[in-house]
Amino acid sequence: QFKSGRYEQIILADVGDIVENFSNAASEQQQYANDLSLMDQVDLATTLIWDITKRASRYCSNIVYASIASNHCRFKLNKQNVGLPGQDDWGIMIAKQIHRLASETDLPVKVLIPDPQDESLAYDVFGDGFHVLGIWHGHQCGSADKVGQWWKQQAFGQQPVHAATIALTGHWHHLRVQEMALSSNGSSRYWIQAPTMDPGSNWYRLNSGEDSQPGIVVFELERGKHFAGSVQKL
Predict the structure, then answer these.
(1) How many other C-beta atoms are found inside a 10 Å radius of the C-beta of residue 103?
(2) What is the DSSP string of 107-135?
(3) How many CB atoms lie within 10 A of CB 68?
């Protein structure tokens, strides 16, 4: 997807669950089900993210890396959340390492993370309020059918994603694109649920009978032009 000189900026978004923690739910099962230790998972994720960030920087001089808190990356003890939601999270820690590496190598990378007390963030893509990308992890909504309701409540309470025109989430493993209510730019709001990047979960398959095809979702935004919901799954 990277093409030299084509894009004004490239946004790389980690929508959560970049690693699999060991104390989310059935922690005894997780002790034996994870292929890598937590340390090795963090090391591998940081390595892969840094590699794609470096590749992107060869084609564009404005790279944005965004990461938000998620249920599988939160710092937990006995399955309970500990610490600050937008800070004590393995995905956020990986984002901080990307920031450090970019700073030391002078790569044109801007890293976005939530405020320490928040789990979501919004990014004004072109700085004109037309395309505002809201990013959060779906565990906050309870279920996929409640995303619209949750988003409305965030707008009413002036929370970080209140002005978002496009929502990008992780958590549910299947790609989903849904048109929603009107946004401030005169077009529809869109919710994009990213597919999983892992090769599947036997636990989920055995419990639901379903599995998911891994992939990466990509889409393009143009300055001053309405987004119509067109995405690609790679």
Answers:
(1) 11
(2) --EEEE---TT-S-EEEESSSSSSSEEEE
(3) 32
State how far the Cα of 119 lies from the Cα of 138, in Å rounded to an integer: 11
Alpha-carbon gap, residue 36 to 40, rounded angstroms: 6
- Contact criterion met (CB below 8 Å) for 22 and 31: yes
- Residue 125 CB neighbour total at 10 angstroms: 19
Q: Which residues contact 205 (CB under 8 A, 6 or more apart)?
A: 211
What six digits make up the tokens of 35?
């292929």
* Prediction pTM value: 0.92
Helix axes 90-105, 38-57, angle to 10 degrees: 40
- For residue 97, CA distances in Å to 29, 42, 44, 120, 152 come to 30, 10, 12, 19, 33
**Helical H segments across 34-145, by residue range:** 38-57, 90-105
Contact criterion met (CB below 8 Å) for 174 and 211: no
Q: Which tens digit of pLDDT belongs to each residue from 95-146?
A: 999 999 999 999 999 999 999 999 999 999 999 999 999 999 999 999 999 9
Q: Is 174 exposed, middle or buried (0-12, 13-18, 19+ CB in 10 A)?
A: middle
Q: What is the pLDDT of residue 203?
A: 66
